[in-house]
Automatic annotation (TrEMBL):
InterPro entries: FHA_dom, SMAD_FHA_dom_sf, TIFA. GO terms for molecular function: deubiquitinase activator activity. It comes from Neovison vison (American mink). It holds the Pfam family FHA. This is TIFA inhibitor. The lineage of its organism: Eukaryota, Metazoa, Chordata, Craniata, Vertebrata. Residues 142-162 are annotated as: Disordered. Residues 37-106 form the FHA domain. It comes from the Eukaryota.
Length: 162
């Protein structure tokens, strides 16, 4: 029997709309269980052509939680120069964060939404890339702040009290 792969739907946007930025982004990429690297280096899986981007800027790392038969993911920052904004949190070099089913990510002017569609196979996952003609995040400079920005309007951050 064929086992369903987990699918990451990744939407990308950059305000310059320069076709060269996303020229090396494949429409789809089948991947094993090693981290998916994002950056400007030729050996990254998602290669983006931006001079301000690190050669290896971040990675999406699959793992399996104890007792679960599904792959889940965390985002890890590999850049020493820049920070990465994920779902309202600013991450710096070597910091990582588990991803939820829908994630808003911003780095080096790039806006990225990662939606995880779970599958039963533990042997790998598939990434489907989509280039967005319009912004994906309401505040494009969000990665430059440490303040929490709720993706759910009007709700306080978890653990902030009444």
């Amino acid at each position: 029997t064929e086992r369903a792969l987990t699918v990451l739907h990744v939407s990308l946007y950059h305000p310059r709309r320069d076709p060269a930025t996303f020229a090396k982004v494949p429409p789809q990429l089948q991947h094993g269980t090693n981290p998916l690297l994002v950056g400007r280096a030729p050996d990254t899986h998602l290669q983006l052509q931006l001079p301000c981007l690190s050669r290896r800027h971040l990675s999406l790392e699959p793992y399996r939680e104890k007792g679960s038969a599904l792959l889940t993911f965390c985002l890890k920052v590999l850049s020493r120069r820049g920070c990465v904004w994920v779902n309202g949190l600013t991450l710096r070099f070597l910091e990582q964060l588990p991803l939820s089913p829908v994630n808003r990510v911003a780095f080096s002017g790039i806006q990225m939404v990662v939606r995880i569609e779970g599958g039963t196979s533990l042997e790998g996952f598939v990434c489907c890339f989509h280039l967005s003609p319009s912004p994906l995040i309401h505040r494009p400079q969000a990665e430059e702040t440490d303040e929490w920005e709720s993706t759910f309007q009007g709700q306080p951050p978890p653990g902030s009290g009444p």
